[in-house]
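Aim 2 progress update. The chain analyzed this quarter is reproduced below.
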Amino acid sequence: MSVRHFLLTHEGAITEFTESEASAVAEGKRELPQFADKRLRYVQVAYEDTANDEGEIHVRTLGAIVTFDADGRLREAGSADDESDKLDPFEHDACVQYALRETVGQSYALN
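Predicted structure tokens:
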């Protein structure tokens, strides 16, 4: 199983992090100064590396709201408080498609 990590800004930017980068941020070992004093949406996409006998790749997603302090250290993670924090279907699908870009390639995926 592979896992990809994404931060989404309210301005529409999506930033991907490797497993080791995401772990370092979560453990407080890495600062993200570009996100200092921000409240962002986080999406984790976990998926099987190969298709099953039916040609399907199972995908699981998890979302959270993450807050960073003035230095860009992760301060807290939680659930959405209001509509502006919620991930819209386009953003969700974009993260899934981007996570699967090497596994699926140019093939189409059904959601």
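The chain has three helices and five strands. The helical segments are 19-26, 89-99, 101-104. These observations will guide the mutagenesis experiments scheduled for the next reporting period.
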